[in-house]
Design goal:
Blueprint (H helix, E strand, L loop, with lengths): L1 H46 L7 H4 L11 E2 L2 E2 L1 H8 L3 H5 L12 H13 L21 H4 L17 H6 L3 H5 L62 E2 L1 H5 L22 H6 L37 E2 L8
Antiparallel strand pairs: 1-2, 3-4
Length: 318
């Protein structure tokens, strides 16, 4: 009898244990699908690419900012977050524009572009030059990260002549003069001579004092980058090159006169210095037998052929 009672007690205890274990296992079983669902959603969010929604991201493959960030023909989201911030909330909200950063104006230029492009040298700066960031002109005024011509360097928003001409209207209009540099027509552009981010350097002379011009490696005016035969040094240099500059005689952006001279005739240019009219004489005056009313003496460079300097004759005759 006692044996049967002990057996019943053991069965009762086993039944209680099973019920307790079943009750504890039920919550774990119910939460397992939820945990799996959360993991699936996180994985799905992680695999979403910006280019799935944004065509600009698809076209970003050839953009300089995407270098090293392209995998299997797809731009990594890490490339986009550099300028636009973390886009996780933007994706989870279905594209809420308030949850993504879009750089605009001076603030966007200062806080985004300058993180990488804040370079300063003795010749250029992006913070203190004439084109430094302001409400009127900033990085995003001239550069377009997503909408620039893929063939244009530096991601400029328009071809250089049209872009610079937006503000510098007078200089841009002079390209239509009869004698002008072949801007946008022969491999020459505004930035061939001008440094958009230029600054004034200490101790410079000549046209470089304006601060926005490029210089040769020797610190000379940009004109000598192409017109190398005018560089010298000459045994007998033209005084105008010593006390003046190229623009003393020439109009760099365009002129109605041959050789892009500032005056209609050669003698008018020469007499600005070789005459006491108006100011003290900078150069020697024409000798008395030079009757300037006669045509033979009105073109000075007929005889003074080495007008930019000579290694043979102090009168620049050869």
């Amino acid at each position: 009898m006692k044996r049967f009672a002990m057996g019943g007690l053991v069965l009762l205890l086993l039944l209680c244990v099973c019920l307790v274990m079943g009750a504890q296992a039920t919550p774990a079983t119910s939460t397992a699908p939820a945990t799996a669902t959360t993991a699936e959603e996180a994985e799905e969010t992680a695999t979403i690419s910006c280019s799935d929604c944004h065509d600009q991201a698809k076209a970003f493959l050839t953009n300089p900012h995407a270098r090293g960030g392209v995998t299997n023909g797809v731009v990594s989201n890490d490339v986009c977050t550099t300028c636009h911030g973390d886009g996780t909330e933007h994706i989870e909200s279905g594209g809420d524009t308030s949850k993504i950063v879009v750089p605009r104006g001076r603030t966007g230029s200062d806080e985004t572009c300058m993180l990488c492009h804040d370079a300063t040298t003795d010749r250029m700066t992006r913070r203190g030059g004439m084109h430094s960031n302001s409400d009127q002109v900033n990085c995003l005024t001239c550069h377009s990260v997503h909408s620039s011509d893929p063939r244009s360097p530096h991601l400029v928003a328009k071809p250089q002549l049209a872009l610079c001409g937006t503000c510098h209207t007078q200089a841009a209009s002079m390209r239509n003069k009869p004698y002008a540099h072949r801007l946008d027509r022969g491999g020459m552009a505004c930035s061939s001579c001008h440094e958009p981010h230029g600054r004034r350097a200490k101790g410079e002379r000549s046209m470089a004092l304006t601060g926005h011009l490029r210089t040769t490696p020797a610190g000379e005016a940009p004109c000598l980058s192409c017109h190398t035969e005018k560089r010298g040094p000459f045994v007998f240099s033209h005084g105008g090159a010593e006390v003046g500059e190229c623009t003393t005689c020439h109009q760099p952006h365009g002129s109605s006169n041959p050789k892009q001279l500032v005056r209609a005739t050669v003698q008018q240019v020469c007499l600005e210095c070789h005459s006491p009219i108006g100011t003290a004489t900078l150069g020697s005056q024409p000798p008395s037998f030079h009757n300037l009313s006669l045509p033979r003496y009105q073109n000075c460079t007929t005889c003074h052929v080495a007008v930019h300097g000579s290694n043979r004759d102090p009168q620049l005759l050869k």
